[in-house]
Amino acid sequence: MAGEQLKGRWSLNGMTALVTGGTRGIGHAIVGELAGFGATVYTCSRNQKDLDERLQEWGAKGFKVYCSTCDLSSRTEREELMNNVSSTFNGKLNILVNNAATVILRRATDLSAEDFSRVLGTNLECPYHLCQLAYPLLKAFRSWKYSFYLICGW
Ligand SMILES: NC(=O)c1ccc[n+]([C@@H]2O[C@H](COP(=O)([O-])OP(=O)(O)OC[C@H]3O[C@@H](n4cnc5c(N)ncnc54)[C@H](OP(=O)(O)O)[C@@H]3O)[C@@H](O)[C@H]2O)c1
Fold first, then answer.
1. Is any atom of ligand 1 closer than 6 Å to the C-beta of 71?
2. What is the mean pLDDT for each group of 10 consecutive residues in the chain (154 residues)?
3. In this structure, what CATH number is given to the domain that contains residue 68?
4. Which residues of 8-25 are buried (b: 16+ CB within 10 A; e: fewer)?
5. DSSP, res 147
6. What residue owns the CA closest to ligand 1's atom 44?
7. What are phi and psi of 22, to 5 degrees?
8. CA distances from 127 to 64, 72, 92, 93, 101 (A)
9. Which residue, among 51, 56, 49, has the nearest Cα to 23 in the 3D structure?
10. Residues spanned by the domain of 121
C-alpha cells in the first residue's frame, strides 16, 4: 500500500543506477525497487548463472536491467565493470549503491591473513575504488551526492 502510494508520487524514469551484488538479498531488493520506479539498473555478481536467472525474472516484470560478472575483490575487474557501465549508460550515472560484501563467520583467532585481506578488499577498498571510478560518470549527471555505502557485516 505505502509502496503503491509512493509510486504515484515520484519516478526514476530516465535515471541510471549501478547496484553491486544484485543477485541475492538486499542488493536484489534494491535492483527491483529502483527498476520498479523506472530506473535503468546495472548489476553484477561473480555467478553468471545467477545473473541469467535474475535477468529473466526482471525482464518478465518489464524492468530494464543490465549485468555482467565481476569479482569485486579484483581491482582490474572493478575497472572493467565501470567501463561496461559507462558504455551501457553513455558515460552517465545517477546512483551508485555499493551493496556487495563478503562476510566470513569465523572466530577472529581462526581468520587467516588471506581471509582478512579478502574481506577488507571487498568491503572497504572496493566501495572506495568504485566511488573513485564512478565519480566522472556521476559528475556528468551532477549526481555525486547519491552514492550509497551498504557495508558492514563482519
Ligand atoms: N543481511 C543482513 O542482515 C545485513 C545486515 C547489515 C548489513 N548488511 C550488508 O548489506 C549488504 C548485502 O547483504 P546481503 O545479506 O543481502 O548479502 P548476500 O545475500 O550475501 O548477497 C551478496 C551479493 O553480493 C555479491 N557479491 C559478494 N561478494 C562479491 C564479490 N567479491 N564480487 C561480486 N559480487 C559479490 C553476491 O553474489 P556472488 O556471491 O554470486 O558473487 C550477492 O549478489 C552487505 O554489504 C552486507 O554487509 C546485511
1. yes
2. 62 94 97 96 98 98 98 96 97 93 92 92 94 90 56 37
3. 3.40.50.720
4. eeeebeebbbbbbbbbee
5. E
6. 101
7. -90, 5
8. 24, 9, 18, 16, 9
9. 51
10. 12-149
